[in-house]
Design brief:
13 strands, six-stranded parallel β-sheet, Rossmann fold, 14 helices, 2 domains
């Protein structure tokens, strides 16, 4: 049931292609949560994006610009602002950093506060377009992102809220749930650089040479895919490693894995890692970047990404000791239930919207 406070909240969510491709769980669960609380939502969407799977509870969808052509945003701005005024949002919510400068402009023209999500580690946060007066809240998906924003963006500390993506951890654990099946190792994400993968596949090659039996699936695409295929052919791993494009719904793919691999220091929050833990896969990962979910011996086993012997030792330990792997996977699920519930995420964002709607001291001083 929606209470009076929730009825007063009416967010306009501004999304990008990256929101849909990299953070579908964030968008989908926000919209379902808002619908459950009878909160009307306006969605501002680029023209090439299919948002049909996400339209639960969305009252109005605005495609802006209507066509993906040069300067279309500028020419279509009057129509966008007129439509938004009719929808009467109380706050704009920019779900992707790439839209930060546009949402800052729209907020000024509409005389509205806005909320900005920061989902990745930027090379220079100081270059991110953030209004000192209208950007009332900066939502960071992890504490590691928040620390970087605090260090690089002046006067950001009081506006930062750390809200992780909520998930629904399974009651069962997928890790080695079928004891007589061939173990499956899964790596998911963009294949844009070969360097973080070289030591991983060297370790996998060594395990195969030592007669360990397992299969590996790499789910993703990218500019380094051809180089990866060449490396697999050179090491005669073609029969063991399969490369597939991103498969939807990918949560069901993750649920088939016994071990989830993350050999890269993450620059962007990984929905794959979150959901792999949620379905109960054991995680073997390196530290660095956005590694808040990676807690050694509690939610994951940690290796040195530049050391194939370190990677091999971790994988060997998980393959040799199935009960240890399952305990690790269950520990990650327990951590998610405690710190990444969907209900906590929804209440957190609603509180952010309420606080964003309150007059800020900086705005009062400049008015």
């Amino acid at each position: 049931m929606a209470n009076g406070t929730n009825k007063a909240v009416r967010p306009a969510l501004v999304i990008s292609e990256q929101t849909v491709t990299k953070f579908p769980t964030l968008l989908g669960r926000l919209l379902v949560g808002y619908a459950d609380k009878s909160i009307a939502v306006v969605l501002v969407v680029p023209p090439q994006i299919d948002v049909q799977p996400f339209l639960c509870g969305v009252e109005t969808v605005i495609y802006h610009p209507p066509a993906d052509v040069p300067f279309a945003e500028r020419f279509d701005r009057v129509r966008l602002l007129k439509t938004l005024r009719k929808c009467k949002p109380t706050v704009l919510h920019c779900l992707c950093e790439s839209k930060a400068s546009l949402v800052r402009l729209w907020a000024r023209l509409l005389d509205l506060p806005y909320v900005l999500n920061v989902n990745s580690l930027q090379p220079r946060f100081s270059g991110l377009s953030i209004s000192a007066t209208r950007c009332r809240k900066i939502v960071c998906l992890t504490e590691s992102i928040a620390e970087t924003v605090r260090a690089q963006v002046a006067d950001a500390s009081d506006r930062i809220a750390v809200l992780g993506i909520g998930t629904f951890p399974e009651q069962s654990c997928s890790c080695f749930a079928e004891p007589f099946c061939l173990p499956l190792l899964l790596l998911a994400g963009d294949i844009d650089e070969m360097a973080p993968l070289e030591h991983l596949f060297e370790a996998i090659h060594d395990l195969v040479r030592d007669r360990y039996e397992f299969a590996v699936v790499v789910m993703g695409e990218g500019r380094a895919e051809s180089e990866l295929r060449q490396v697999l052919a050179e090491r005669k791993l073609n029969q063991i490693v399969t490369i597939v494009p991103e498969i939807h719904p990918w949560r069901s793919v993750l649920a088939a894995a016994d071990i989830f691999l993350e050999p890269r220091a993450l620059k962007r929050f990984s929905s794959f890692l979150l959901e792999a833990m949620s379905v109960g896969a054991a995680v073997a990962a390196c530290r660095g970047g956005i590694d808040d979910l990676i807690i050694d011996k509690q939610t994951a086993l940690v290796f040195d990404s530049d050391d194939s012997l370190s990677i091999r030792a971790v994988l060997q330990r998980l393959l040799d000791r199935h009960e240890l792997a399952r305990q690790l996977a269950q520990g990650a699920q327990k951590h998610l239930r405690r710190h990444h519930s969907v209900s906590h995420m929804i209440e957190g964002y609603l509180q952010v919207y309420r606080e964003a709607g309150e007059p800020s001291e900086s705005a009062a001083e400049l008015s």
